[in-house]
Structure formats: structure tokens, C-alpha cells
Amino acid sequence: MTVNPELQGRVFPPVAPYLVGREKVREFSRAVFATSPINLDPEAARAAGYADVVAPPTFAVVVQEATLAQLLAEPDAGIDFTRVVHGDQRFTFSRPIVAGDELTATLSVASVKSLGGHSMVTAVSTIVDAAGAHVVTATSTLVVRGDE
Amino acid sequence: MTIIATPRLADLTVGDVIAEGTFPLTRDSLVHYAGASGDFNPIHYRDDVAVSVGLPGVLAHGMLTMGFVVQPVVDWAGDPGRIVDYQVRFTRPVLVPAAGVAVVTVVAKVGAIDTDAGVARIDLTVSSGEVTVLGKAQARVRLV
Hints:
The complex is a heterodimer of chains A (148) and B (144).
Chain A: E1 18-19, H1 22-31, H2 37-40, H3 42-47, H4 60-73, E2 84-93, E3 102-115, E4 118-128, E5 134-144
Antiparallel strand pairs in A: 1-3, 2-5, 3-4, 4-5
Chain B: E1 17-25, H1 27-37, H2 47-52, H3 62-69, H4 71-77, E2 83-90, E3 102-114, E4 119-128, E5 131-132, E6 134-142
Antiparallel strand pairs in B: 1-3, 2-6, 3-4, 4-5, 4-6
């Protein structure tokens, strides 16, 4: 099974909105050993000018995840998830994610490349808030190992 | 006594070490991250499953490693909202034993300074044992 090159340029329908909960942000913050009070304490976050606790930078992957599931489930994608390795990851922010945000992610496939029997799929998830304003773009390169 | 304020771009020099960190990872850390992130791939907590797919053992989620190695930079910047861009390449897995710890270390250096944009690029060197586990790990930090 090889990755369908026609995936390149495909834009998927937006996934269901994700409501960012305060306790989820605090739980995620503790799981990545965040110690900034702005991640953990609503009072400290408000004192720093935010409406509520601020999510750590990599929290965006939690919102992105549904779009990657969409990609793997695409019937003609040809992506065998048991052969997928996460190659690289990037987050580019217009503003940080804050508890209370309602975020909507839309996936597009920027590129599909073949390299030495493997395929590299670059998936770009654009995440906007309830007003439609850009919050963060999450970009993942997935390496799909070829048949041995 | 000096109050430590937000670092200023003008005070930085390329090559300066601005933060370091040492993180002892246990299986508990992986289970905690699985729950917090929703990534329940069993290669991150079950040895039998990890071995069955050709891995030497249970490994840390790449996104967990990416998530904690930036924290010394966040603490240096004083506000997680100052991280405007963050990228890594996953080059080698971090194996976490069933008992004991896998220690991951990070050294964060100033890689580039863009005065016009008001952004410092901080380059992270991330190792476990003697091995580098992330490549091109860079956080861009908004400063004045």
C-alpha cells in the first residue's frame, strides 16, 4: 500500500469545535512539567493580561489530533497507521490558546513526497477561534514506512 | 536584591545559554501524558506491544518530550504566551524502562536575534543518555 499522491492539496471539512477547559489545560500543563503560574493559576494568568489559564505551546496537538484522525481515516489515502512515524512537528501562533477558547481545526495536505521507499505527508491544521481569527497552525510531517 | 524581569533582546548574544533543564521520566510520566493528551497508543505503556512492532521497548511520546523541553524557555521568558513558534524533528526515541528513569536533558541557547521582528530564536539541544533525541528544535520567543 502506498500513499495516494493525489492527497496533496486536499482540504478537509473542519472538525467539530473544541472547547478548551481550564482543568484540561492544568492537567496538560502538569503532564509536560510546566511550572509557570500562567499555565496553572487563573489569578496569575489574569494578572498577566489573559482571560484564564494559558495552555502550554504543545497543547495545540490536542486540538490538532482530530484532523490527523480524519487524514488516517480517509478511504483513498492509503495510509496504514501502523506504519506511521511522527517525523517533525511545528506550531506557529498568532496568539496562545487560553481556557475558554472554542477552537476549530481545518486540515489540508501540503505535500506528499516519496523518499527511498517511504512516503512523507505534510499535514497542516489551521486552528481558529469562535470569531474565526487565527490562533495557531500545527504542521506535522508523517513518515509512512514502505513495505519491507 | 534584583527582581528578575522579562529578558530583553538587547541583552542577548547569539550562543548564550539562557536555560537548562533535567527531566527524569518514568512510566508514570508516560501514563499521565497519555491521559492528559488523549494519545493512548500502547507503545507508550506496554512492553509487549512495543516489542511486537519491532521497538526495543516502551518509548516516550515524542510530543511529551517536545512538550517539556520547552518549559525552561517558558520560565526564562516569564510567560508561555511569548512562544510564537516552536518546532522539532523527532530523530531518536527515548526509551523508558518499566522500573527506574530515563533522564532527558535540555540546553537552550540563543540561536538568532531578529530585532526588527522582536523575536529571539532559541535552539534546544535535547539528549537522553549521550544521545541527541531531537533535531532542529527551535523556539521563537517574542521579546522587547
